[in-house]
């Protein structure tokens, strides 16, 4: 079990509480909200959640991939 992993259902619950761009815990300025989550095959993934004015966008990628984080990203863990 991955200690830093957040259940994908928890991520979607946060997104749901901020539907229509409402204020809340997640950034809504186009910056990434980054989580770690386990996929259906048991692999740990990086999950990026962005608000782009018309809704939430979610992108999952491998841990250790070539993407880089920029200043201002919101990195979250289960205990955030």
Please provide a written account of the structure.
- The protein is α+β, with helices and mostly antiparallel strands and 80 residues long.
- It is built from 1 helix and 4 strands.
- The protein has one helix spanning 8-17; strands at residues 33-38, 44-51, 56-62, 74-75.
- A 4-stranded mixed β-sheet has the order 3-2-1-4, with helices on one face.
- The longest helix is centred in the first third of the chain and has 10 residues, at 8-17.
- The chain is globular.
- The protein starts with 7 loop residues before the first helix and ends in a 5-residue tail after the last strand.
- The mean pLDDT is 83.
Fraction in helix? 10-25%
What structural class results from the helix and strand content?
A: alpha+beta
Strand sequence of the main sheet, in spatial order?
Answer: 3-2-1-4
What general outline do the C-alpha atoms trace?
globular
Helical element count? 1
Q: Nearest-angstrom radius of gyration?
A: 12 Å
Distance between the termini: 18 Å
The string of secondary-structure elements, in order, is HEEEE
In terms of DSSP E residues, the strand content is: 25-35%
Oligomer: single chain
Keywords:
four-stranded mixed sheet; 1 helix; alpha+beta; globular; 80 residues; 4 strands; 12% helix
Per-chain topology:
Layout: H1 8-17, E1 33-38, E2 44-51, E3 56-62, E4 74-75
Parallel strand pairs: 1-4
Antiparallel strand pairs: 1-2, 2-3
Would you kindly provide a brief summary of this structure?
This protein is of the alpha+beta class and 80 residues long.
């Amino acid at each position: 079990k991955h200690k830093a992993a957040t259940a994908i259902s928890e991520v979607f619950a946060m997104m749901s509480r901020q539907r229509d761009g409402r204020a809340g815990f997640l950034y809504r300025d186009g910056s990434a909200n980054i989580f770690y989550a386990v996929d259906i095959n048991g692999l740990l993934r990086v999950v990026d959640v962005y608000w782009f004015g018309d809704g939430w966008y979610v992108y999952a990628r491998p841990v250790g991939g070539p993407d880089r984080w920029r200043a201002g990203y919101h990195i979250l863990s289960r205990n955030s």
